[in-house]
């Protein structure tokens, strides 16, 4: 059968749409069309940065041609250091040719994947992009002396607003990125967290010995949700009240034995088992997206991810704004003086809305009692959790 001419382009367009929506971008394939970037492409693959780029949904890759790469290779850096340097060439934002030439205020600082490794001290994980005279755009790692080390050459490929690949003139050179780097499993998880605003939490991991369980899980994949120092400090009176095994369970509840990038958390709502999980429906919580926010819901409290300490497959560490309180430990906690039930619905609602008696940023066990009795939201949440558990159970059965 012969297709009439207008049908053919329509069909190919549909096929193209089909493929572009079912397959996320593949940086290796995008660069393979341009032999002048073959060295850069090769190093993206062997450093596993290609996989990280493919997982991100909004990203810019500054590619350097083979001559530029030979300048880098002449420095004889270890592969882990090369990975850090190349991470500095990957921006966590979309800069197409148009946006690069229309930077508000003439310059901007953008976070790079080096920033997300947690190994970039201060602002060294940021790159300054500056619009210059004559339509030129310059790039400078924030920790060098401000001289623009590379300029924009051309756009290589753009999939708005998922990935932009641009050709820049030289390697972005930074003493911090070029500092000798160890293998990924050399991460000292607790000192890493301590340096990034989670010192109180890491101290608890060390003092209870829970650190060892966390560390043992890094190679196989680990996501840690660390409450920030202020949150832990406010929680300490309650923490001290727990028995030693309960303390360890509470801490283990903040680790998930699977690597989750922020993108994965955003696109996979559902139940998560933790390092404290023993058996089904124990010590788990639900990941729930709320716009750009990623929320973690236990039956007692809902915490929100507030920042990334480190995101480098197989390890991700995120800051959260509340201590995750497992229902296994906080359900049976002594309830606040119960409102007189006789008054019925109104009283119950008032109780549900009343703020907890203390530390407002840490869910109080008393809140849970009120919530479970009065609030439809929680009951819906419970329903969703049951359905998700069934779903997860079925999925797990196949794994
Ligand atoms: C951009 O990424 C999203 C999520 O992966 C995908 O659904 C969409 O199809 C991508 N857009 C293009 C043009 O490929
Ligand atoms: C990306 O493309 C390369 C080369 O075509 C291929 O070897 C690789 O498996 C692809 N990666 C993914 C995740 O599809
Ligand atoms: C970027 O660098 C230029 C040149 O050193 C400087 O004038 C500008 O203030 C910097 N921009 C930002 C946002 O730091
Ligand atoms: C991490 O470093 C601290 C001191 O900086 C040390 O006490 C701890 O044992 C280290 N942890 C591991 C797993 O090496
Ligand atoms: C600690 O436990 C005791 C006894 O169960 C209780 O009276 C007290 O309110 C608790 N303190 C905190 C801060 O939770
Ligand atoms: C939904 C629910 O559990 N409601 C209970 C709230 O508390 C009163 C009094 O204790 C019970 O009668 C309700 O069944």
TrEMBL record:
Disordered as annotated region, ranges: 336-374
CC per GO annotation: plasma membrane; side of membrane
Where in the numbering of this chain does the FAS1 domain appear?
24-172, 185-324
Q: Where is the signal peptide?
A: 1-24
Decide whether keyword Cell membrane is in the record: yes
- Record localization: Cell membrane
Instruction: Read off the SUPFAM superfamilies from this record.
Output: FAS1 domain (SSF82153)
Q: Which UniProt keywords apply?
A: Cell membrane, Glycoprotein, GPI-anchor, Lipoprotein, Membrane, Proteoglycan, Repeat, Signal
How does the record say this protein sits in the membrane? Lipid-anchor; GPI-anchor
PANTHER family this protein is in?
A: FASCICLIN-LIKE ARABINOGALACTAN PROTEIN, FASCICLIN-LIKE ARABINOGALACTAN PROTEIN 2
Q: What function does the entry list?
A: May be a cell surface adhesion protein.
Family named by the database record: Belongs to the fasciclin-like AGP family.
Q: What is this protein called?
A: FAS1 domain-containing protein
Source organism per entry reads: Ilex paraguariensis
